[in-house]
């Protein structure tokens, strides 16, 4: 099973789109009782409009409360319940509430990998994977460039990706800003 830190990094990455990461935060705090408080802003993610609550209390050190309301995930848990609480988020909440909301993703253009991408849309499968749903015809209005001096020499632009294909994601910095791309 994937490590919690890697899952958290992937969740953050899949939501970065040049805007979300400027307005939303992931925070992890400790308290003096001792316990943990985690807050993740879910606004403009596929979990934006859900409500969820799950509680467990064995004693003052062995507990968790996991709640999503008003587009914020808040976890309050005992000092040894942090990993279990994150497992509930990644392995229960995300699979249960993923929906058909489309995410913008850019696909590498054949022969221009790491330099030129075309627009596509997909749905979230998990915190690091998107299923491609729509790949419009490639044209100059839906391209993103690594640099402004890329020459295509009027060759036909293609991509190897297909509808319904599952792709792992990564971030790329382009002339127009940060984009989510297929690995």
Kindly describe this structure.
The protein has 183 residues and is an alpha+beta fold. The chain has two domains: 4-97, no CATH class; 103-182, no CATH class. 17% of the residues lie in helices and 40% in strands. The protein has three helices and eleven strands. The protein has helices spanning 4-15, 20-23, 82-97; strands at 26-31, 35-41, 52-57, 63-69, 72-78, 103-108, 116-126, 129-134, 143-145, 166-174, 177-182. Strands 6, 7, 8, 9, 10 and 11 form a six-stranded antiparallel sheet that branches. A five-stranded antiparallel sheet has the order 1-2-5-4-3, covered by helices on one side. The longest helix has 16 residues, at 82-97. The model has no long low-confidence stretch (mean pLDDT 90).
């Amino acid at each position: 099973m994937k490590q919690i830190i890697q899952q958290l990094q992937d969740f953050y990455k899949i939501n970065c789109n040049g805007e979300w990461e400027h307005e939303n935060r992931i925070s992890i705090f400790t308290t003096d009782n001792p316990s943990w408080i985690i807050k993740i802003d879910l606004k403009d993610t596929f979990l934006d409009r859900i409500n969820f609550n799950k509680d467990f209390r064995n004693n003052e050190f062995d507990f968790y409360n996991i709640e999503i309301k008003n587009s914020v995930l808040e976890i309050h848990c005992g000092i040894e319940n942090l990993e279990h609480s994150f497992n509930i988020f990644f392995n229960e909440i995300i699979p249960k509430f993923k929906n058909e909301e489309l995410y913008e993703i850019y696909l590498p253009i054949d022969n221009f990998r790491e330099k030129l991408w075309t627009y596509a849309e997909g749905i979230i499968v998990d915190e690091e994977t998107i299923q491609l749903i729509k790949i419009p015809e490639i044209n100059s209005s839906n391209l993103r460039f690594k640099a402004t001096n890329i020459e295509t020499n009027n060759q036909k632009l293609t991509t190897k990706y297909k509808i319904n294909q599952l792709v792992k994601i990564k971030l790329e910095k382009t002339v127009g800003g940060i984009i989510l791309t297929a690995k």
